[in-house]
Amino acid sequence: MTISSSTNGKKHSELSDAQLLRYSRHIMLPVMDIDGQTALWHARVLIIGVGGLGCSAAQYLVAAGVGQITLVDDDVVELNNLQRQVLHTEERVGLAKTQSAKLALSQINTDVTINTITQRLDDAALLEAVTQHDIVLDCTDNLSSRQGINQACFTAKTPLVSGAAIRFEGQVSTYTMQPNTPCYACVSGLFAQPNLTCSEAGILSPIVGMVGCIQAIEAIKCIASIGELLSGKLLIIDGLSMTFNTLAIKPNPTCGVCQD
Fold first, then answer.
1. Does residue 174 form part of some domain?
2. Is residue 222 part of a domain?
3. Would you give the DSSP letter of residue 51?
4. Range of the structural domain that residue 51 is part of
5. What is the pTM (predicted TM-score) of this model?
6. At 18, is the secondary structure helix, strand, or coil?
7. Does residue 94 lie in a domain region?
8. Three-state SS for 45?
9. 3-state secondary structure 172-230
10. What distance in Å separates the CA atoms of residue 87 and residue 73, rounded to the nearest whole number?
């Protein structure tokens, strides 16, 4: 596993005067305050998948002042990505998605350390990457990757924010990997899994933006220990009817991951 890192010569310590000003709109939120913003600055977030979901989530986490982001993707930018993957541009078609996203994110916030892994991770490398971070965002688009990420996060007891989007629909849930809480495998077994991708079924571009933004919100809440997470809940978005439904989910007693 090769990690390319950019630190911009910054050290992660207490917030500077410039940061206090930059993140003042966060800090004035009573539940966030300086403690929450400092927690973001010291956080290490792993984003797996730098497509529609990853692009949306990453830009808000970087803007919000998360101190260290690691982007994982082995794909390159293609013309048909530009409809929804907002960090990539026409000029960067053919470039690795991790490098394209890093260029865009570095323009948003030069303080943030942005690491890149431009390869598909096997089980051992994935577990190693997960253990080095405080929270994982699953922004992939296939079932096998999601199951592997879920297994690694459960093994490492690292919180996982999982998002998915297809056609006009999206879903988000947060898995804390704590006792008596469900994991992704508990939920995925409840629904039929056609395992279609956007290239096969289509996707309305703002749907991935909505889901990615919600993933960023969940990550921020988890890191700063504020609010109520979508733990034990599955948020379902229907863009055609513009409805949001939340389903309660429980650990599956026969789950092969968290109940094995």
1. no
2. yes
3. S
4. 4-169+199-227
5. 0.92
6. helix
7. yes
8. strand
9. EEEECCCCCCCCHHHHHCCCCCCCCCHHHHCECHHHHHHHHHHHHHHHHHHHHCCCCCC
10. 14
| CA atoms 29, 59, 104, 115: torsion sign | positive
Is there a domain that residue 112 lies in?
yes
* Residue 8: C-alpha distances to residues 12, 67, 118 (Å): 11, 12, 20
**CA distances (Å), 67 to each of 14, 40, 103, 118, 212, in order?**
11, 6, 16, 20, 19
Q: What is the pLDDT of residues 87-119, one digit of tens each?
A: 999 999 999 999 999 999 999 999 999 999 999
Sort 139 into a burial class: Cβ within 10 Å, 0-12 / 13-18 / 19+: buried
**What one-character DSSP code corresponds to residue 15?**
P
* pLDDT, tens digit (0-9, with 9 covering 90-100), for 142-188: 889 999 999 999 999 999 999 999 999 999 999 999 999 999 999 88
144: burial class by Cβ within 10 Å (0-12, 13-18, 19+)?
Answer: exposed
DSSP state of 259: T
The answer to whether 114 and 102 are in contact (CB under 8 A) is yes
Pair 145, 132: CB distance under 8 Å: no
d(CA 105, CA 71): 11
Number of separate domains in the chain: 1
Q: What is the 3-state secondary structure (H, E, C) of 113-140?
A: EEEEECCCCCHHHHHHHHHCCCEEEECC
Distance CA 3, CA 118 (A): 8
Indicate which CATH number applies to the domain containing 206.
3.40.50.720
The pLDDT value recorded for residue 202 is 85
Judge whether 73 and 49 are in contact, CB under 8 Å.
yes
